[in-house]
Amino acid sequence: MAQGSAATTRAVRHLRRADPVLADVIRRVGPCRFETRNSGTHFEALARAIVYQQLSGSAAGTIHARVAESLGGITPEAVLSTPDPPLRAAGLSRQKIAYLRDLSGRVHSGELDLLSVHELPDDEIINAVCSVKGIGRWTAHMFLMFRLGRLDVLPELDLGVRKAVQREYRMRRLPSTERLTKLGRHWAPYRTIASWYLWRSLEI
User: Which of 4, 28, 38, 175 could disulfide-link 180, Cβ–Cβ 3.0 to 4.6 Å?
Assistant: First the structure.
């Protein structure tokens, strides 16, 4: 989904009407530049998420590039057929190698069908990808939002969104997941775009 699409225009219009606090955030942040990442495969997107866990962007990018080079392309077959030493030399921990192998095994066997995953409802996608070791609810939400372009996802575990809500809604402490979920009902069916604006508000 490209920035300035009809869908994002409708989303911004709805959010302005639904929530005066968010309307002010939208005014300060400016035009919506939400975009999905369409390059590569769904498998590569999930593998990248595993590699990037708990690392800074630059360090993760370097390791990800080394892994791709070592494998000759990040595919389930390449991950399953490559022994640990080259992956360790590329910078992956033993734990992340195990996670990548679990993901690869599930995709290779057909247990996790990433070719048709986009046809499923959000909750079923979350359950499917969270069956993989090392992939939790936050990663599943990022996959829904930035890979599949689902517009009504609220990443209630995301620290950035919670910090932005605390600041913009003048809360004394970080909102609980329950409080954030309740607040987010006003933003449906465009909670992804609301979250994008909240993230951007932290940069102002």
Answer: 175
**What is the Cα–Cα distance from 48 to 37, expressed in whole angstroms?**
12
Average pLDDT over residues 126-135: 96
Quote the longest CA-to-CA distance of the chain. Answer: 55
Q: What is the rounded (10 degree) CA torsion for 141, 147, 153, 156? A: 30
Number of other residues whose CB lies within 10 A of the CB of residue 115: 11
Tens-place pLDDT, residues 74-112: 999 999 999 999 999 999 999 999 999 999 999 999 999
DSSP of the chain: --TT-HHHHHHHHHHHHH-HHHHHHHHHH-S-------SS-HHHHHHHHHHHTTS-HHHHHHHHHHHHHHHTS--HHHHHHS-HHHHHHTT--HHHHHHHHHHHHHHHHTSS-TTSGGGS-HHHHHHHHTTSTT--HHHHHHIIIIIS--SS---TT-HHHHHHHHHHTT-SSPPPHHHHHHHHTTTTT-HHHHHHHHHHHTT-
Domains of the chain (ranges, CATH numbers) = 6-36+152-201 (1.10.1670.40), 42-147 (1.10.340.30)
Which amino acid appears at position 10 of this protein?
A: R
Distance CA 25, CA 16 (A): 9
